[in-house]
Amino acid sequence: MLLPSTLRRLLALTNNSKALLPLRTLATVKEETIKEKYDIIIAGGGMVGCTLACALGKNSVMSNLKILLLEGSPNQTYQLKPEYSNRVVALNQNTKSLMNSLKIWRHIEKARLQPVRYMQVWDACSDALISFSSSDILDDDIAYIVENDLLLHAVNTELASTEIENLKIVYGAKISDYQLSKSDNKTATENIVKMSNGDVYACELLIGADGANSAVRKAMGVQYLSWNYDQMGVVATLHLAEETENTTAWQRWLPTGPVALLPLDNSRSSLVWSVWQDEAKRLLKLSDEEFVDAVNDALWKQYPRSKGVEACVSWMSSCLRKAGLPDGAVRQLPPSVRHITAGSRAAFPLGFGHSVRYIAPGVALVGDAAHRVHPLAGQGVNLGFGDVKDLTDLLADAIYTGYEITHHSWLEKYESSRQRHNVPTQIAVDALHRLYTVDLPPIVLARSLGLQLTNALHPLKKMIMSHATT
Fold it and tell me: What is the pTM of this model?
């Protein structure tokens, strides 16, 4: 479980609105060395950065602003391949609404996506489970599984097909350093972005969308609370033993971490398996046949169980039945895996990160630059897209009411609105990770009874899903 001291520290740092360290700056940049000035510069053009550029560029209130997107990767031609990529995201309804408003979703639908209409999560150390169905909890699908590179291609396609005259994109951009404004008054020095090729840009508002190792965040000098989980997420594209209407997301909590199958089409699913680092290295070295056996074991293997825990879980099920509530006895059986796509196995490190401040004078952070979470709940990229929507709306409101885009009150509104949503989500996800990587009988009992009760109480499940989709 999340240690109380860690929780207190995170909340204290988050609530400390003045917790800023001195800004790191370059030597003064002379006016004549600046190549071009912009109102907004976005550093980082991944899924979140590119979507933010599209949202700002399409907003009619900001049509007179000059916007620059600096993307470190080259502008590559995308080709939809028959086989799925091994890196996917689960997009919630709010993200879909954002993508629809920007006309990006049509490009995703034209290519491919898979809806999630049912979700089942269960404990390997007991019979406790929780299930979610789109038919009785939401008015629409629970989520949509989309490949990372396809999503980025859809955003770039909309950027290229739309006449956004106030947006410029520089691909292959390598940023060497920043000089940040020290004040938010009218005489403040502009933010300076220095490129490795010698070009220098200036802007009123600098937005860091440059990932978990954000150079913009480091230049801000803000406190960053982070830790590694000593785990890796093993990913692969799996071919199922039987072809079905594959719209279910499966997640089983093993003592080593969760193993999840996310639907891709009627015969394929994407694997996300959280394991300790040594185990991840072992899994990557297995033959394809041995790896398939390991995945099937993770989904089906019977783990040792405590008789005391079994008795209490059975008693709770009986009480729920007598009360006319779901007892979790009705469950679907997970699929078996036949083989994996050759070369689709990979692993990435898992960690937690939270920037105490999302803003500084003339600077704002979005996406992984501001927050990083364990992938067990599929919330990481959705939190980033939530940042995009709120920041775009608040900047537009600031301009509409006659304020500068760097006005501190509007940036503080962005920080407050996002931290009120992001921090509880991060704490909950971290707590779940810690709770389910312990197999002590008292802990197993507590989480099993909690899971049973949550599954039985429909309003509580609906509240959880409502938070997860906003």
Answer: 0.90
